[in-house]
Amino acid sequence: MTVEKWVYGGDSLARVDGRVVMTPYLIPGETARVDQTEDRRGLIRAVARDVVTPSPERVDPPCPYFFRCGGCHYQHAAYEFQVQQKAAILREQLRRVGRIQYEGEIAVVSGPPLGYRNRSQFHVDRGRIGYYGEGSHELVAIDHCPISSPRLNEALGELVKMARDRRWPGFVKSVELFTNETDVMVNVLDASQPVAKRFFDWCAERIPGADRGYLEYTAAGRTFQVSHNSFFQVNRFLVEPLVETAVGGASGGALALDLYAGVGLFTLALAGRFERVTAVESGASAIRDLGVNAERAGFSGAAVTAVQANVEAFLSRYGGQAPDLVLADPPRAGLGKTVTSELVRLRPARIVIVSCDPSTLARDLAGLLAGGYRIGRVAMVDLFPHTYHLESVVALEWQGTIPDGS
């Protein structure tokens, strides 16, 4: 078969006798022999047996674990080609899921494709540490990860040694490392019983910062406190470009809302442009971090108001001043119908959505466009090189009329 294109999710798509065949690790334009592994409602899943006609974009993967580890999907393709394909995938998702025929430019923001991750999660099993294999719970043991930062790999190397030590608690099944390239925070994500403080003290003997409850992370001209359960962007090279892409086009105004605000990455950037910013975040640790970060940046309570609340609940009872701008950075599930409807009710002049899932983004955009907004600009920010994941930034403007004329 000959591969037609990549689709969101990491697979390639081909058509054989009118049927769709999905196969990982192939490149558009390649001809390959594949073995069928599944046939479900006419959709065939397959694995490549051999590539008959390789693409000129095919390269040797920089990672020795690629094809076995399930973390990356595109290391067999040249990086510039990956970026071009992701922009095309975003455009297709807008069309296919949201029925949005966007013909404008999709700006591309990218950085170094290796050594970029400041946060990674690892599974632990019988003294081995690594990632699960593609589509399985079978551990692929590793001793380094080329997409992780140098400091993260140093910490991983120490964990690999520690996991073989008899002092390692066997009930710890998964850990997360987060670094600012000096200190490394260690989080236990999966354990069958509580983990004692002495475990983190032991980690700190080899990994500075492992026993601390938060990390100080400097990015986009600010220093952010990020606690154990708080979210922060994972690409250490693209934090500032992401903020600039999302906020750079905002000319300012009286009031901005920052929804799903986290520790305040976008909040502080908005506070430098707007008279007042209301930041809404449901996580207790993140809202505490946001308060610390705003105060440290010199923004008083009048300039930045942090609200711990579910975004749906906040918007449904919001009756204050109409915001000039709403910036939303929702989780993978997207805004959803309720939040989208509330935004249409509020009718801010501008909306910026920072999305990590183009499918839910397309669904949300369809509702906002139907409610009277138009797309001003779209950007694909490649926060996750070598994987199918992508970040999108879409700026919307109120056009004054709802498309049906009402």
Fold topology:
Layout: E1 5-6, E2 11-16, E3 19-24, E4 31-40, E5 43-53, H1 79-98, E6 106-109, E7 119-125, E8 128-132, E9 139-141, H2 150-163, E10 172-179, E11 184-191, H3 197-206, E12 214-219, E13 222-227, H4 239-247, E14 253-259, H5 265-271, E15 274-281, H6 284-296, E16 304-308, H7 311-317, E17 325-328, H8 336-346, E18 350-355, H9 358-370, E19 373-381, E20 391-398
Parallel strand pairs: 3-5, 6-19, 14-15, 14-17, 15-16, 17-18
Antiparallel strand pairs: 1-2, 2-3, 4-5, 7-8, 7-10, 8-9, 10-11, 12-13, 18-20, 19-20
Helix pairs in contact: 1-9, 7-8, 8-9
- In the predicted model, the low-confidence regions spanning at least 5 consecutive residues are none
Radius of gyration: 23 Å
Structure classification:
alpha/beta
Let me know the number of strands.
20
**How many helix segments?**
9
Give the SSE string: EEEEEHEEEEHEEHEEHEHEHEHEHEHEE
Shape: globular
> How far is the N terminus from the C terminus?
50 Å
Strand content: 25-35%
Rounded mean pLDDT score? 95
Strand order of the largest sheet: 6-19-20-18-17-14-15-16
State the major sheet.
Answer: 8 strands, mixed
Q: Give the % helix.
A: 25-40%
Notable characteristics:
406 residues, 9 helices, eight-stranded mixed sheet, five-stranded mixed sheet, alpha/beta, 20 strands, 26% helix
Protein model, in words:
The chain has 406 residues and is an alpha/beta fold. Helix content is 26%, strand content 32%. The strands form 4 sheets. Strands 6-19-20-18-17-14-15-16 form an 8-stranded mixed beta sheet, with helices on both faces. A 5-stranded mixed beta sheet has the order 1-2-3-5-4, with no helix packed on it. The longest helix is centred in the N-terminal third of the chain and has 20 residues. The termini are far apart.
